[in-house]
Amino acid sequence: MKLAAIDIGSNAARMQISTVLHNDDLVSFKRVEYVRFPLRLGHDVFNFGELTPESEARTTKLMQVYKLLMELHEVEGYMACATSAMREASNGPDIARRIEAATGVKIHIIDGQKEAELINNVVVQALDDRQFLHIDVGGGSTELNLYVNRQKVNSRSFKIGSVRLLEGKETKGAWRKIEDWVEDNVDASREIIAVGTGGNISKLFNLAAKTTEEGTTLTEIERIRNHIATFSLDDRINKLRLNADRADVIVPAADIYISVMKWARASQIIVPDLGLKDGIIQLVYSQHIKKHKTH
């Protein structure tokens, strides 16, 4: 059985198709298709408060492509979720309805809490009994989640993200709010390890020297960030071989991860290859099972 997740973010829209694997009682998901396209919806929303007709047209075309791919793969269940940009766009719900009418793809505009919850459901599997601060930086928002003994003890969504910073549109006092939240919630007497999710931390981690298979240090993330910052945008694309839509946001995104880690006094970060799309797949699977149990 194949299931699909579509994640329409402020920077890019991703689709992942996974096969459901059964090994005795253990269920796992194997990625068989992954497509990412840089829609940059955040550029419209953080500057004008709404999505332009051009962005609507491109999003509609992309959903048609994703629909065809799902048909080719014979996907049995899917869910499309839109996050920060579409939820803040004054015309977001109208556009979602028009896209559904044109393509048959229903887009769920989810709030920051639901977004964090879906990511948490998969991230928690990578944790042990220590204190962890999960940092998820998107184009439009940053989600922080604190875990102790594999239990989430607190979480908060902040209106600061890589595209928002790039456009100079972060909300007033957003940095201070994050610093205060970290100070109020992290137990300074216990060791804390950061967990990073999102496309930018994955790219930074790929370029970094590793301490473990999934881990590196704050010092190393800072070194990579500073190295990238010395290159012009053209050189980041041509010499460092970064995608054009990654090249301009990777430094602002790194600044968020680095700042949060410093405020939390976390010297280590683990970067599991997980994100919102994996949380959506898990949700689609549980809904599929529930539906078939009732029939």
Please characterize this protein's 3D structure:
It is a single chain. This protein is α/β, with parallel strands linked by helices and 295 residues long. The protein has two domains: 2-110, 2-Layer Sandwich (Nucleotidyltransferase, domain 5), CATH 3.30.420.40; 128-274, Nucleotidyltransferase, domain 5 (2-Layer Sandwich). The chain is built from 13 helices and eleven strands. Strands 8-7-6-9-11-10 form a six-stranded mixed sheet, with helices on both faces. The two termini are 18 Å apart. The model has no long low-confidence stretch (mean pLDDT 93).
Low-confidence parts, pLDDT < 50 over ≥5 residues? none
SSE run = EEEHHEHHEHEEEHHEHEHHHHEH
CATH class of the largest domain: Alpha Beta
Strand coverage percent: 15-25%
Lateral strand order in the biggest sheet: 8-7-6-9-11-10
Number of strands: 11
Summarize model confidence as the mean pLDDT: 93
CATH architecture classification of the largest domain: 2-Layer Sandwich
Main β sheet profile: 6 strands, mixed
Q: What is the count of distinct domains?
A: 2
Overall outline: globular
The total of helices stands at 13
Q: What's the Cα radius of gyration?
A: 19 Å
Distance between the termini: 18 Å
What's the quaternary structure here? single chain
Kindly report the name of the CATH homologous superfamily of the largest domain.
Answer: Exopolyphosphatase. Domain 2
Helix content: 40-55%
CATH topology of the largest domain: Nucleotidyltransferase, domain 5
Structural class: alpha/beta
